[in-house]
């Protein structure tokens, strides 16, 4: 029996002891985070799945793991089909699957600290006709059998200086207070870790790649704030930074504090605050307003200091990436390098900037067939040699105090095939379509997603992920609420209006299972555009590209590009030369100038 089969068996035994007929295992933590600390990696521990999005259901006689199109290949490589059924989302859901598979009269457990009230309501509705019921557990049954479960991180908090944040914490809290007053509310619970970090201008080290700390905050209408965080995380500098208007409490006192709002109105985000928070507030007599966390939109619209910081971080990061791409072109063409050695080399180039604080996510270093797995994670076991005849895809980013980066490039190893060049050029056409898009203020990301797909659709092709995600300012590499994705994309973020000042990625791709993957990713900022002859009362928006590194010209078929697309490409490469070129010299600079010379 494999280790993961044994763990599944142990969980079933634990469920039986608790009188439960099933249990739902999400990939998140008490803050509904996308990336979580080691202590919260329950799905990976149970199943072996190492992706960043997924969930599972365990019943007495069957089990299912749920992933989206990004992980169709990966989940089958990492999770045994003998133990688990593979279920795709959004084609189905945990709620729909339970409605068909939960035993009549069964008791299905869930951890109320790991699911939202919205999720609970959806599943309860799905189970209504089956006789099965959802049962909240007081303690997570996986924790009971995970004998070597890591402890939460002890990392200390750090101050995010206002020269990077642009706006002081007191001003941010005052705005939240005004927002509450306008809604006749007394307080708002901030459960999202990046919302807390942004509001208080602090950063942490509790989650790999995301500079946040495990904490909760309650902001009151007068701007005063209660911060619940482990005392050992607080340095004297952080205490002085927070000041007297931020009252400090141990993190484990948060649940009890929620019971102290009897007769008062408290805002909690139905999509970001877990069900246990709503339960505790209501049990204590509070009136709960289910509204979106007010920090989410404010955080997404970057202020001028944050934008300037991102430009500086992108230019710095672009130099490191360009040096790496030159290394691939000159040192990784003979089969002597592997995915792991390439990722290590790129990390070294970033570290040589002297300002890298972390990578913004686990680098996707993927050659050949691994490139067809959009969120592939290289390990010592999966590490593959980069060999001639392949495409090598590198998706990576850096965390700097002044900005978070995320960029993808593809390099041919040896001569690319005509098909590779065709597919790459179609992806490039989609990338250019987004980069040059002009749209009215209020347009949603779901309305322009098809721009990136049309060149692929015309060849009977597509890709199974969103075209763009928001990005934080030395915070989460994936940040809402904005997104460029199909309108039915999970989570509904594709229906968020795009607003001036938001940052997004532009990353269409194409993946041929078992052979290669292609993705071209830059970050962009939404800016206002003046249109000659347009309606003077209509605000029009477009994208400013912020990422600069060469796009591989040997993979481009110029015959497939229109004159306007060629003009964009050549102008982009001229800008790469202008920004990156002066920071390079010798062989690397000469290589860059060659790669950025006009195409067509």
Automatic annotation (TrEMBL):
EC number, as in UniProt: 3.4.11.9
Pull one GO CC term from this UniProt entry: cytoplasm
The UniProt record lists the Creatinase N-terminal domain at 7-138
GO molecular function terms noted in the UniProt entry: metal ion binding; metalloaminopeptidase activity
Entry keyword annotation includes Iron-sulfur: no
Which Gene3D superfamilies does UniProt cross-reference here? Creatinase/methionine aminopeptidase superfamily, Creatinase/prolidase N-terminal domain
Question: One Pfam family, short name please?
Answer: Peptidase_M24
- In this protein, which residues make up the domain named Peptidase M24? 310-527
The protein's name is Xaa-Pro aminopeptidase
The species this protein was found in: Sphingomonas abaci
Lineage here is: Bacteria, Pseudomonadati, Pseudomonadota, Alphaproteobacteria, Sphingomonadales
């Amino acid at each position: 029996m494999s280790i993961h089969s044994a763990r599944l068996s142990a969980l079933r035994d634990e469920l039986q002891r608790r009188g439960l007929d099933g249990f739902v295992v999400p990939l998140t933590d008490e803050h509904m985070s996308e990336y979580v600390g080691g202590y919260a990696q329950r799905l990976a521990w149970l199943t072996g799945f190492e992706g960043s999005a997924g969930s599972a259901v365990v019943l007495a006689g069957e089990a299912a793991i749920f992933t989206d199109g990004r992980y169709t290949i990966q989940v089958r490589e990492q999770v045994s089909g003998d133990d688990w059924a593979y279920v795709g989302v959004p084609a189905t859901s945990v709620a729909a699957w339970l409605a068909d598979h939960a035993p009549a009269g069964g008791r299905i457990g869930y951890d109320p600290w790991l699911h939202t009230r919205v999720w609970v309501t959806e599943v309860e509705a799905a189970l209504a006709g089956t006789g099965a019921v959802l049962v909240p557990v007081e303690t997570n049954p996986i924790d009971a059998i995970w004998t070597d479960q890591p402890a939460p991180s002890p990392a200390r908090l750090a101050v995010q200086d206002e020269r990077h944040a642009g706006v002081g914490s007191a001003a941010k809290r005052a705005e939240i207070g005004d927002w509450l007053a306008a809604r006749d509310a007394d307080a708002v619970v901030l459960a999202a870790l990046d919302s807390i970090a942004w509001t208080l201008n602090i950063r942490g080290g509790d989650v790999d790649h995301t500079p946040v700390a495990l904490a909760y905050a309650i902001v009151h209408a007068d701007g005063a704030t209660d911060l619940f965080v482990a005392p050992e995380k607080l340095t004297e500098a952080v205490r002085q930074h927070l000041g007297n208007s931020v009252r400090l409490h141990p993190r484990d006192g948060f649940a009890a504090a929620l019971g102290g709002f009897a007769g008062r109105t408290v805002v909690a985000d139905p999509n970001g605050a877990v069900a246990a928070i709503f339960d505790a507030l209501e049990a204590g007599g509070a009136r709960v307003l289910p509204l979106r966390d007010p920090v989410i939109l404010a955080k997404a619209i970057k202020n001028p200091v944050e934008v300037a910081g991102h430009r500086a971080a992108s230019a710095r990061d672009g130099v490191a990436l360009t040096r790496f791409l030159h290394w691939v072109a000159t040192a990784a063409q003979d089969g002597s390098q592997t995915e792991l050695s390439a990722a290590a080399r790129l990390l070294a180039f970033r570290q040589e900037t002297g300002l890298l604080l972390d990578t913004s996510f686990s680098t996707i270093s993927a050659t050949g067939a691994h490139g067809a797995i959009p969120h592939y994670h290289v390990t010592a076991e999966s590490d593959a040699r980069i060999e001639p005849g392949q495409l090598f895809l590198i998706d990576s980013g850096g965390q700097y105090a002044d900005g978070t980066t995320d960029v993808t490039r593809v390099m041919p190893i040896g001569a690319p095939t005509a098909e590779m060049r065709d597919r790459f050029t179609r992806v490039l056409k989609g990338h250019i379509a987004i980069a040059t898009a002009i749209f009215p203020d209020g347009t949603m990301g779901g309305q322009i997603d098809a721009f990136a797909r049309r060149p692929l659709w015309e060849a009977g092709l597509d890709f199974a992920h969103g075209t763009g995600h928001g990005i934080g300012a030395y915070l989460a590499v994936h940040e809402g609420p904005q997104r460029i994705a199909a309108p039915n994309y999970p989570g509904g973020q594709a229906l968020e209006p795009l607003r001036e000042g938001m940052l997004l990625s532009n990353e269409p791709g194409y993946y041929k299972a078992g052979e290669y993957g292609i993705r071209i990713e830059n970050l962009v900022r939404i800016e206002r555009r003046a249109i000659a002859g347009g309606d003077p009362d209509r605000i029009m928006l477009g994208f400013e590209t912020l990422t600069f590194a060469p796009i591989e010209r040997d993979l481009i078929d110029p015959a497939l590009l229109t004159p306007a697309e060629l003009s964009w490409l050549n102008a982009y490469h001229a800008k790469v030369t202008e920004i990156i070129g002066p920071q390079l010299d010798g062989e690397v600079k000469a290589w860059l100038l060659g790669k950025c010379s006009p195409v067509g």
